[in-house]
Amino acid sequence: MATDSWAQAVDEQEAAAESIGHLQIKEKPEENGTAANVTDSSSAPAKSEAEGDGKSTEDDDKDDRAAQSLLNKLIRNNLVNTTNQVEVLQKDPSSPLYSVKSFEELRLKPQLLQGVYGMGFNRPSKIQETALPMMLAEPPQNLIAQSQSGTGKTAAFVLAMLSHVDPNNKYPQCLCVSPTYELALQTGKVIEQMGKYYPEVKLVYAIRGNKLQRGMKLQEQIVIGTPGTMLDWCSKFKFIDPKKVKVFVLDEADVMIATQGHQDQSIRIQRMLPKNCQMLLFSATFEESVWNFAQRIVPDPNIIKLKREEETLDTIKQYYVLCNCKEEKFKALCNIYGAITIAQAMIFCHTRKTAGWLAGELSREGHQVALLSGEMQVEQRAAVIERFRDGKEKVLVTTNVCARGIDVEQVSVVINFDLPIDKDGSPDNETYLHRIGRTGRFGKRGLAINMVDSKMSMNILNRIQTHFNKKIEKLDTDDLDEIEKIAS
Ligand SMILES: Nc1ncnc2c1ncn2[C@@H]1O[C@H](COP(=O)(O)OP(=O)(O)OP(=O)(O)O)[C@@H](O)[C@H]1O
Predict the structure, then answer these.
(1) Which end of the chain has fewer surrounding CB within 10 Å, N or C?
(2) Residue 73 has pLDDT above 90, yes or no
(3) What's the rounded Cα separation, in Å, for the pair 222 and 261?
């Protein structure tokens, strides 16, 4: 749907909602709500039903992106290393651009500085250097910030929210909207950690299942939640007075825009806020659709972008092995393992079935194998990836869908047990680059081995070679000397 037409649709729905609002609908009595002190994480509400009603492809896509995002958060315990420069586009290009090299320069409240250091942060990350002074400036400035997962965006806007609230005022002053329950909880945890020494500031979760008593007014200064419930709390139930909100954060905008409903709800919330409310929008990607959405919702924004490290195939040695069936591919794999020392490898299969079979075979051969499979819950997947990242298992077998968007940087060898293809059976060059690219990070040499088992897969391989204009050498896995050579 074009931007304008859905904006119109929002207006129409809103008008309809208003007229429905006049009807008397008898509601079920609601239970007591759940609020959290920023020092208390035990009060997060229990998991409730998923947001949204019908399950569509669009929702699946949203779930997929949200799951990736959550996985990356769950498995990461430090900042992503980046050497890229920050691009800044200021609303007023003539105003001086501040950037800070230390948290002290931000003149934070001592309790917050203590919280920041307590989390082990010594200095601001790349994006935080520029984003924090902008977010903390007076008068408040709107900001759209884009940088890859793990570069410190969440920590940045959490610090901004905690800095802006006045704990003496017992009403919501900051609203933060996340696309899913789990992501909201993750951000909530960061607020709790960073606000550990600032217990006067309280946090509440606006998530379906967290029922409040009718007619009550929230006293917590920060509300974090999903857009549907947040909207209900602002308009239908009036637990929040949106006119008193000073900061509005939209987290994971790229995921948020993947569902039309989330966009609409976010826009409706935003329309209830005062004109001078600070708008902060964060996103890991910056596609056209995110940009359109951002422009709708954030007036006169400053923009900060941190480009992703370009993935290249320059430092990666690529080979292919000819086989006739999956058993032969497995044998080739064993030969490779027998000839060279592989610190850690990721093996990609096309289907769950192949991945399961291969993991079983490798385990029987005595390998410590981790298997990432589609039917696992997000938390289970995170646990598997975390164990692999910590080196507890040396081989990670996965389907592409499972590993999409997941950053495990230390692997030295990538094996395409099946070549990556898209839905139409054409080569998926982007996925190929992303899979292989992870072996050659930070100038280290990586090794990629592709298993070819049919005319069709040979054709795919040829097209991948042509696309990247890079030769993929043939490897004879029965020749141990030859295999040894590739590792040197
Ligand atoms: N200045 C800092 N110094 C050290 N570690 C930091 C700093 N800022 C954030 N971190 C840590 O780095 C990790 C990634 O930060 P954060 O979650 O804020 O990134 P993000 O960009 O929001 O990622 P995502 O897009 O996945 O949400 C976290 O473990 C966080 O605690």
Answers:
(1) C
(2) no
(3) 23
The superfamily (CATH) of domain 61-306 is P-loop containing nucleotide triphosphate hydrolases (3.40.50.300)
CATH class of the region 316-487: alpha beta
Question: What would the pLDDT profile of 466-484 be if each residue is shown by its tens digit?
Answer: 998 889 999 988 887 887 8
Find out whether 483 and 475 touch, Cβ atoms under 8 Å: yes
CA-149 nearest atom, ligand 1 = 25
Q: Using most ligand atoms within 8 A of CB, pick from 125, 186, 189, 305 the residue to mutate for ligand 1.
A: 125
Q: Does the interface predicted TM-score (ipTM) exceed 0.85?
A: yes
Say what the pTM is: 0.72
Between the CA of 398 and the centroid of ligand 1 the distance, in Å, is 26
Question: Is the CB of 398 inside a 6 Å radius of any atom of ligand 1?
Answer: no
Q: Where are the domains of the chain?
A: 61-306, 316-487
Distance CA 291, CA 89 (A): 14
Residue 22 CA to ligand 1 centre (angstroms): 45
- C-alpha–C-alpha distance, residues 452 and 419, integer Å: 8
Q: What is the CA radius of gyration of the chain?
A: 25
